[in-house]
């Protein structure tokens, strides 16, 4: 710390480091994902590997990329076949995301997504489904644990009034705040669980009245992996009640689609569209990590009472004195933080000059955020 040509060293008791987590709510309604802009905010790439969603028509200069949707499957999946549409790309998508988010085993093989997160203990694997990488613009440093909510239409009815999500499934990381895992090369992640959200009368939507693990959310990476089981019946290895029927979309053409057919017979963009149009609501809180170093710059009563400004003296007399017996004083306007080699590293400006005299002591708090 320097003033008036003199330097004062800052000790360990003068420096404090802090870490603050700032959170912001991110709501993405289904109308943004499909409906608000008649799909003009949805970009279909020529490579056919994924679909990109923007918050405005993507040709607009004000459009922001919010997330992507892609689909993939492991070669170990019962749905995998070389007869599938784009089977190589679906396999490559799965492998690419798995090697980044799950990693490799001791033999050097890519590990598969584990349904309950306990990779070492084995258990059921997520071998086919959808992957949603969110934009860093939304996620910031990470998704806040325990805040991820995705509501999907299990059955959609079309009428003259538009699309109605007649039955819905709610997917959350409800135990994420204290039940997350750290055995991923991409950081921390939590298990996503599905429960029935709407229309649970009769046989109900799900095969039992409970939560089912149906995916994973990687908090620092900002990626959600959703199992294909959310749209399959129990007999097909899914979570839907057998009497409920597989994924269906009833409309003017009475179209009915089974997700098995979507993942195997459709292109990736077609499978993504099938998933995208069923998003009713999507929300989470992001996290911004703000690191700060606080410097307590202390000016004792006998320090910084003089200035080296050329106008401070006139004929060896202090200009600001009206009488020779008046005590000296100065005005503090700036604080400079220097290295050990007296190199200026940072400058802090006061909002107004601060009068300093031998009868006063100050502690000025300088905060650097990064």
Describe this structure in a few short sentences:
By secondary structure, the protein is mainly beta.
Q: Structural class per helix/strand content?
A: mainly beta
**Which residue ranges are poorly predicted, with pLDDT under 50 across at least 5 consecutive positions?**
249-256
* Average pLDDT taken over every residue: 84
SSE ordering? EEEHEEEHEEEHEEEEEEEEHHEEEEEE
CA gyration radius, whole angstroms = 30 Å
- What overall geometry do the principal axes of the alpha carbons give? elongated
Binned strand content: 35-45%
Helical coverage, percent range: 10-25%
Number of helical regions: 5
Q: How many structural units, i.e. domains?
A: 2
Intertermini distance: 20 Å
Compute the number of strand runs.
Answer: 23
Q: Major sheet: size, sense and barrel closure?
A: 15 strands, mixed
């Amino acid at each position: 710390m320097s003033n008036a040509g003199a330097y004062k060293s800052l000790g360990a008791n003068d420096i404090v480091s802090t870490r603050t987590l700032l959170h912001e709510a991110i709501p993405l309604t289904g109308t943004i994902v499909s409906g608000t802009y008649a799909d003009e905010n949805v970009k279909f790439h020529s490579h056919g590997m994924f679909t990109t969603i923007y918050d405005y028509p993507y040709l607009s200069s004000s459009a922001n990329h919010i997330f992507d949707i892609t689909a993939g499957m492991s070669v170990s999946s019962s749905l995998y076949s070389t007869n599938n549409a784009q089977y190589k790309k679906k396999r490559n998508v799965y492998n690419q995301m798995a090697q980044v988010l799950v990693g490799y085993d001791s033999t050097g093989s890519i590990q598969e997504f584990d349904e309950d997160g306990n990779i070492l203990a084995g258990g059921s694997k997520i071998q086919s489904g959808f992957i949603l990488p969110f934009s860093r613009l939304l996620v910031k440093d990470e998704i806040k644990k325990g805040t991820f909510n995705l509501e999907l239409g299990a059955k959609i009815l079309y009428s003259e009034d538009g699309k109605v999500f007649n039955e819905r499934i709610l997917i959350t990381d409800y135990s994420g705040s204290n039940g997350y895992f750290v055995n991923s090369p991409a950081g921390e992640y939590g298990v996503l669980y599905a429960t029935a959200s709407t229309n649970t009368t009769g046989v109900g939507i799900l095969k039992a009245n409970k939560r089912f693990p149906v995916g994973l959310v990687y908090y620092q990476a900002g990626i959600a992996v959703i199992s294909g089981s959310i749209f399959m019946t129990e007999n097909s290895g899914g979570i839907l009640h057998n009497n409920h029927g597989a994924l269906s979309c009833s409309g003017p053409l009475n179209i009915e689609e089974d997700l098995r057919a979507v993942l195997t017979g459709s292109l990736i963009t077609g499978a993504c569209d099938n998933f995208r149009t069923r998003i009713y609501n999507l929300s989470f809180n992001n996290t911004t990590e703000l690191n700060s170093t606080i410097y307590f710059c202390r000016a004792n009563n006998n320090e910084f009472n003089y200035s080296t400004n050329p106008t401070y003296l006139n004929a060896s007399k202090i200009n600001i004195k009206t009488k020779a017996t008046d005590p000296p004083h100065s005005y503090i306007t700036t604080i400079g933080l220097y290295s050990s080699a007296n190199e200026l590293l940072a400058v802090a400006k006061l909002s107004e000059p601060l009068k300093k005299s031998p009868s006063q002591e100050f502690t000025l708090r300088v905060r650097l955020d990064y």
